[in-house]
Batch of 4 targets.
Target 1
Amino acid sequence: MQTTTKAQLTEGPIIKTLVRLTIPMIIGILGMVIFNLVDTLFVGQLGTNELAAISFTFPVVMVIGSISMGLGVGVSAVISRAIGEGNHHSVQRLTTDSLSLGALIVVSIVAVGLSTIEPTFRMLGAEPEVMPLIKEYMLIWYMGATFIVVPMIGNSAIRATGDTKTPSAIMVVAFITNIILDPLLIFGIGPFPRWGLMGAAVATVTARFVIFLLSMWVLYFRENMITFQVPTFQEGLSSWKKVLYIGVPAAGTNLIMPVGMGIITSLVSVYGNPAVAALGVVTRVEMFALTMLMALGSVLAPFVGQNLGAGKKERIVLAVKYSQQFAMAWGGLMFILLLVLARPIASMFNDNPEVIANIILYLSLVPISYGLLSVLYLSNNVLNVLNKPLHAAVLMIMRMLVLYVPLAYVGSYLFGIQGIFGAASVANMIAGVAAYYWLNRILRSTTNKLL
């Protein structure tokens, strides 16, 4: 089997390279965002309780996703640096050991998750009428968790090589699978059973299984990044330590968001199921609006990692500068579009006037902060690759737990649900400004020592 992994991001025009990498990722991430939007659209047609139920699951699903993405950040950082150094044996060892680590973690997640469904969602504020719906969705979702966690790690390893087309193509295939299966299994079209919310879960797990198969094939057969050579105890431990040094703080950082969103969901639940349903919708719309920046962040990490391994600090500094400028411009554009299109967007998901009103309210208040929120996300990606995971964690803690949650409590008391949504906007802007200045200070003062 040939060795194919080599540094691809250490030469050539920076902007052109970032654009070339980002465009395929936009398609892939857009596919996964639409994946979630389609679930929400179809489930919304079942009724407000079903929409509220899937909205309640979002913080828990985000917890698992955050752990996976955190490990993925660690994997991308260490593998991209090994590629930049030209060490293929290390690339194989790190990739294989990262996948085994992810498999062990997912077993623990499933065991805990299955035994705590009811108390977890009661704590989030779920009413008795939606609890059976939540259970039928989460039982299936947890059973397929392996196909959610492990492929995220695998796709991070593929992106570390500088290949964004393949992960994007895999995500698009998963999206197509999901959009075909969703209506068939939710509504029972033709010979398929009408499974309702459970059908949405089965469609999601099946689509994720497709991602699992395709990513493992690419890593083993095409990239030669998986080895079946059994590592020594020290080798395996060394790989895990390298990944976890960045992955644990990154996962912890990512976990702050769903934990905070769980608190926010509990606050919003006081205003009824229509308010929770609206929160579930706007969370997915927000992901759609920030797809471009999510794509840029996912390619900025391997770009920084490979150039870090190759000792090319100037390329890192310029890439960060260009990315921050683009983030602010894109955030401004999304604010204008969502302000204008708030009502038609809301009407797509549900016909309940309360749900529509709350969606419009959110989209009128929060998107003004999207530019600085994007700067925060980009900064976190760069800080993790620069071996500054704790700095990234501090920024996310500040945004969610120091600013958003306390301000939401105060805002809810003073202004109702409008105060909760306004708190999100204020927290995003303050944290984004802090991230901008902190990252640029770190780049100026410590890049030489890091390289």
Note: The CA atoms of residues 91 and 422 lie 45 Å apart.
Target 2
Amino acid sequence: MGAPAELAGKRQDAILICNMNMTLENTVPAPPPLSIERFSHLLGAIYDTAQDTDSWSACLEQVRKEFSGNYCSLIVRRASGADLGYVISAAGDMRVLSSQHPMVGLSPFSCIRPERVVTTSDLLSPDEWRSSVYYREWCEPHGVFHVMAVDIDLPGIGTYGFRVTRPEQAPPFSMADRSLCEHLIPHLRRALTLYAAVNHDRQVDSMYRHAMGQLMVAVFVLDENGVILERNAMANDIVALGDGISISSQKLCATYPADNRKLYQMIQKVLSQGSQGEAGKTAMVEAMSLSRPSGRVAWGVVAQAIHSTEWTEGKRRPSVAVFMRDAESRSEPPARLAQQLFQLTPAETSLAIQLANGLSLDEASEVLNIRRNTARAHLRSIFSKTGVRRQTELVRIFLNSVALLGNEP
């Protein structure tokens, strides 16, 4: 099963093996009994990974030390065919070693039952382990002899492998080691599940932001005091124009005093109504227009309440979304997508886009450097393929089509 794309994409598609620059004695002293403080510290490191995948190496390093191991690894994507997989490992002094080795996919731990902690001795005798190709070609060169392994299955997401290793001169993993590992597994599972959920939400949020940007809608999110918490790229572009709207002390301001009062009153009205609403209920919406010193068509402004819940009360919480759109903005759908949607030729698509942006047939002919008769022929073909009869209908279907959503972010 596949792993979340962002977690795998944070590093190269390779197995990361980290070398440990330390000399192990013939015997490794057993770690002191695990205290509540140390266990709590381990859990904190595990749950930190749910928000920041870069912290996995630090988390695995803490686990490695707790087990007195030389390596601790999380298998995110297993090796298969030409794909050598993806593994995050910790081993003290970290560095990347070459992963181009054909033996990495031959591990005897690749088919263990999920949620069951096993060690090398559970699967193979010492002689069988020493004689295996995987041990001789991969483990022995890296000082790995004792292995404790467990697979963590997340339904609908994937199966992750968790591994801790020790060198041959170190003691094998004890029942106490197994017990600690079993206690850590539920928390590792939850952290991985949380990461998958957070990453999913981020991807969906990114998709919505992109869609809003392509639809040429500016979005400002305000807190309970009307202070801007965030804004999208289109909002930044509109503010940069300095044409009717600006930002002062992190609040929206209109150029003209009368408009500024109306804007302030609208936001305050939505804020007061939103604080009394309930999550899931229809949010209050108010609208107004803002004059532009340039003389161009006024900005259309809509403010909508964002209802809070019992879990989102407090300072700096999203309370109002303000939407703005330029009625004169140009439509720039990707020509390839417009062709696919309406089955047009490249020449017909170019003409349709110019007409959708408000040009007359003569103006579009001049911009495209084609004869008027040629443009008329293209227009007749466009009408036939799209099923419209008037130029105004053509403009409407183009502006309302999904082609705009295909622009690159």
Note: Residues 175-214 form the longest helix (40 residues).
Target 3
Amino acid sequence: MKTLTVDLGNRTYPIHIGSGLLQHAELIHPHIQGKTTTIVSNETIAPLYLDVLHKITSPYRNTDVILPDGEVYKTLEVEQQIFSQMLTARCDRKTTLFALGGGVVGDMTGFAAACYQRGIPFIQVPTTLLAMVDSSVGGKTGVNHPLGKNMIGAFYQPQCVLIDIDTLDTLDDQQLSAGLAEVIKYGFIRDLDFLNWLDQNMDKLLQRDKTALRYAIYRSCQHKAEIVAADEREAGQRALLNLGHTFGHAIETGMGYGKWLHGEAVSVGMVMAAELSQKMNWISKEAVQRVKNLLLKAKLPIEPPKAMSATQFSDLMSVDKKVQDGVLSLILMKSYGECIVSRDFDPVALQAVLSRE
């Protein structure tokens, strides 16, 4: 096992990464504050891992909340199920919530923890690669709105993140590739050495080699922990973690939640960011091709959906959380392995990218 720390003063918490960690109650019990727990999972994950987590929480009075599976259910209406079942079970301010599942479960559970009785503790137990390397760390929680992804939520940090990489054994290949998009993102924004390692080891990752997966997850979480500790509420450098996300969220919203996996949409978004950077003469065409080649090696899409027009992209991107005073910020590439936050991008070049010119 390896352990990282997200350093946030009195809200500092550990990220434990390893195999078989769901068997180790001693990693969890110090972070349970009261005598009751509530485990939130979904219909896909609960049959696989809920009983295992029950063993860890057996000394406590527990309630289970099983949500429907899928991005389309990441709504305020479905969120109410968590609140209703906790209220029925008489959960109090010391009840500890567990998020057992992927990014949707983690975001919704964290949001419930931030809101229930104005804030209760929660623990992240991610079971998808994407959740392990991104959404479980950093305290971004929330739900989607028909007009925009993740537009309703809160910054609220977990007590602990427990990453048992053995849960990836049951993850399907498409979801694994989607998670790799967020892994690759860390290389693009700040770590050329990691990009080169990914290029050399992508086959091992796709084959679920445990050593390679453990290293990729550790390196990704290391970057996330450093960035979050320096900029918890995205006032500066944390925005770099949104590389590809403005384009990607537009795809997810425009195509209908759940039609594209988040990592797939982000993959296309990173290509679009690279193409805009190239049109502004910040990076070369060869660098754009390297971006595409690595994503293709991870079995990810690199072309935006033909059904989406430039106008639809523009309209949806105008609702993005990075719009301030009516001006959109985009994460663009200054080089292969380095990104910046820019409000000074060329609007003509952006229109050309959106129009596939």
Note: The radius of gyration is 20 Å.
Target 4
Amino acid sequence: MALSGIEIYKLLPKTNCKDCEFPTCLAFAMKLATKQVELSACPHVSEESQSLLAASSEPPIRLVSLKSDGYEVKAGNEVVLFRHEKTFYNMPGLFIRVTDEMTSEQIQKKLKPAEEYLVNYVGIDLAVDGYAIESTSNDPTKFKSAVESVRSVSKKPIVLICKDPKVIRAGLDVLEGESPLIYAADESNWEEMGEIAKNANAPLVVSSPNIDSIAEITEKLKDFGVLNLVLDPANRDLSTSLMQFTQIRRLAIKKDFRPLGYPVIAFPCHAPSPETESIQAAQAITKYAGFIVLETFSPEALYALLVLRQNIYTDPQKPIQVQPGIYEINDPKPEDPVLVTTNFSITYFSVANEVEGSGQPAWLLVSEAEGMSVLTAWAAGNFDAERIAKDVKRFEIADKVTNKQIVLPGHVSVLSGELEEELPDWDVRVGPREAVDLPAFLKQAL
């Protein structure tokens, strides 16, 4: 049973040492009661209190990891219902599905493009997370062969899909030392599937169209010693799955209902068309899947899903940043100008894309501004003449250019005089306010 903040406070050292980065032990206790911090943040709590506080310190949704040779996909550990309340932590893994009735050549033909797919979005590499292998033949030999074919293409984590324990065992024989996701236990086979998952040290999906039945099975499996579980409400239409996924998440977080405190898996792969599959996958990313199985590998559709996922699972209090430094656009020469911007990713890519599209060569100085846009960083004191001058020297830009012409964003033209004092041997210019006006500015003003 969850403890209140006051009950937790009574078990803490009460020294107000601030080592947990909170001003008082009471403040830390209140945060711990709402699952917003971990007990490990307090280095002085006694072993006795640790055992008593273990349940209260656990996130309402258990962390489940799929592991393979050098790869890991995590789901769970979420503490809020809505992203703006804090943040979402572990973005859902996207898995491409094959079946054991496909030949080895068909499997490799489908998965090789998916395995090679890698796209850079605002400085972040996006890719497929793993593969799902479903036994449609119910033949252990065919299933084992399909797993081997997938492993010949990729080392990424795997989801094994079949409710026949004999078939699952055959697939696991190929994945020794890994932690694949096993699908699935239900009312008829939970004990045998639980034994398999326990022996393989692998997470197990619990599947039922009824949420009450899911809760009953998870409790049985927990008593059986299987702790890493994933839930499948087994309804595939948009409205019902949305309702059930939300209900599971709400009960786990708002009511601290432990039998449903596990990640959820979604199967857009069963959609009647690729378009519907993309819609279902997008819904699953936002509400509230931990693992998502797709049928279609389409670079354009996958890109949209990966970008959506990245945006939903970006901490709203920590904007996406690019690495500060000097960037070369269109192979600049020493006589070309130096443009200045901040390291907020959207600002950087807006400027870089406009300059690149113009065909005009330029050096782009990305200054450290804690991931803020130009105006926001200037207002917060994180983007000023002193910082810009320090970055000019830090990145040794004077050694790369001969004209020493530096261009400030138009929104911070007020910094031009100060920057001239900081960089007396540089020609300080003021550029346009908007990135879209940079091509014309570069052609006409410089």
Note: The mean pLDDT is 93.
